Amino acid sequence: MKNLFYAVICVLSISACSNNASQKVLPILGNREADTKTVNGKTITDTVYQTIPKFKFINQYGDSVSNKTLDGNIYVADFFFTTCPSICPVMHRNMLNVYKEFKNAGNFKIVSYTIDPKHDSVAVLKKYADNLGITGKNWLFLQGQKEETYKLAKSYMVEAREGNVHDGYFILIDKQKRIRGSYLGTDPAEVAKMIADIKTLQADPEQNIVQ
Amino acid sequence: MKRPISAVLLFIVSLLIASCINDQDIEFKRAYTAGAIVYQTHCQNCHGSNGEGLSALMPPLTDSVYLKQNKTQLACILKYGLKGNLIIVHGKPYQNQMPAAELAPIEIAQVLTYVKNSFGNKLGVVKVDEVNKDLSGCK
């Protein structure tokens, strides 16, 4: 009897350990608010996380793309412009690895917003995508109003402003439109970590609930 | 008695030649290392750390034939950039713009020496005099 007791303890502790290891969960970034409601006479407090707001842009094929188009997808966003000679080629050289890694995975997208919509027309974005070797709709290059783009960048916690100034972060967004990671897109090591994190997120049971 | 003298002479001459080669070697190494730093600051973002380019956007720098055929144009391309002219590298077309680099002739010579002897190229040292001559003939 005593032996059985020890055996049970052993099995329990081992399973507890392995459970912890397999349930790696990415943090949820950004602002959060407490939402307190009264339901059936009880006070319930929920955490409301920062999410990506509504937007409506045009992609490289001339189709309209909104936040709704991305529903049900895990996606990575960045801000760039096609004539940028500094960090953008490095960012997109690294992003190309992400594109190739998840090319055949469903429910995953890459979204690159141009911050120079005056130059980066639909035709220019299409040519850029073609030259980069992008086919299909897994990697979308979006063009919209400049002010709207700058505003949207803020909700991704990315800096983008007048004079084609932007930073090189890749932002990982989950199916609930919450920010789950921010990676320096110019650093191959950080981008490799992002690829691993995307896989973690894809395996997260919370991401597999039908939206 | 004659033999030792000629032996000594031969020794001195061979020493001179050896030191000469050494000087050239040092000159090459100096240009190459300086050129590597110029490359990292001005070229690597687009052309990559191994000169591999980026898909069909940025041409690779691994085409020795292109580098040879456009030998006198390279300095001009670095100084004034490319304005969307069609170029063929490794048999593939590239038509992107390349920004003009703010480089002194000596830096152009250094970075050309680096590129022409990296990424599988082996085309020898580029001297400042050559660069100056090429620059005076830019279209």
Automatic annotation (TrEMBL), chain A:
<feature type="binding site">
    <location>
        <position position="166"/>
    </location>
    <ligand>
        <name>Cu cation</name>
    </ligand>
</feature>
<feature type="disulfide bond" description="Redox-active">
    <location>
        <begin position="84"/>
        <end position="88"/>
    </location>
</feature>
<dbReference type="InterPro" id="IPR003782">
    <property type="entry name" value="SCO1/SenC"/>
</dbReference>
<dbReference type="InterPro" id="IPR013766">
    <property type="entry name" value="Thioredoxin_domain"/>
</dbReference>
<keyword id="KW-0479">Metal-binding</keyword>
<keyword id="KW-0732">Signal</keyword>
<keyword id="KW-0186">Copper</keyword>
<keyword id="KW-1015">Disulfide bond</keyword>
<feature type="signal peptide">
    <location>
        <begin position="1"/>
        <end position="21"/>
    </location>
</feature>
<protein>
    <recommendedName>
        <fullName>Thioredoxin domain-containing protein</fullName>
    </recommendedName>
</protein>
<feature type="binding site">
    <location>
        <position position="88"/>
    </location>
    <ligand>
        <name>Cu cation</name>
    </ligand>
</feature>
<dbReference type="InterPro" id="IPR036249">
    <property type="entry name" value="Thioredoxin-like_sf"/>
</dbReference>
<dbReference type="Pfam" id="PF02630">
    <property type="entry name" value="SCO1-SenC"/>
</dbReference>
<feature type="domain" description="Thioredoxin">
    <location>
        <begin position="46"/>
        <end position="203"/>
    </location>
</feature>
<dbReference type="GO" id="GO:0046872">
    <property type="term" value="F:metal ion binding"/>
</dbReference>
<comment type="similarity">
    <text>Belongs to the SCO1/2 family.</text>
</comment>
<feature type="binding site">
    <location>
        <position position="84"/>
    </location>
    <ligand>
        <name>Cu cation</name>
    </ligand>
</feature>
Automatic annotation (TrEMBL), chain B:
<dbReference type="Pfam" id="PF00034">
    <property type="entry name" value="Cytochrom_C"/>
</dbReference>
<dbReference type="InterPro" id="IPR036909">
    <property type="entry name" value="Cyt_c-like_dom_sf"/>
</dbReference>
<protein>
    <recommendedName>
        <fullName>Cytochrome c domain-containing protein</fullName>
    </recommendedName>
</protein>
<keyword id="KW-0349">Heme</keyword>
<dbReference type="GO" id="GO:0009055">
    <property type="term" value="F:electron transfer activity"/>
</dbReference>
<keyword id="KW-0732">Signal</keyword>
<dbReference type="GO" id="GO:0020037">
    <property type="term" value="F:heme binding"/>
</dbReference>
<feature type="signal peptide">
    <location>
        <begin position="1"/>
        <end position="18"/>
    </location>
</feature>
<dbReference type="GO" id="GO:0046872">
    <property type="term" value="F:metal ion binding"/>
</dbReference>
<dbReference type="InterPro" id="IPR009056">
    <property type="entry name" value="Cyt_c-like_dom"/>
</dbReference>
<feature type="domain" description="Cytochrome c">
    <location>
        <begin position="30"/>
        <end position="119"/>
    </location>
</feature>
<keyword id="KW-0408">Iron</keyword>
<keyword id="KW-0479">Metal-binding</keyword>
<dbReference type="InterPro" id="IPR051459">
    <property type="entry name" value="Cytochrome_c-type_DH"/>
</dbReference>
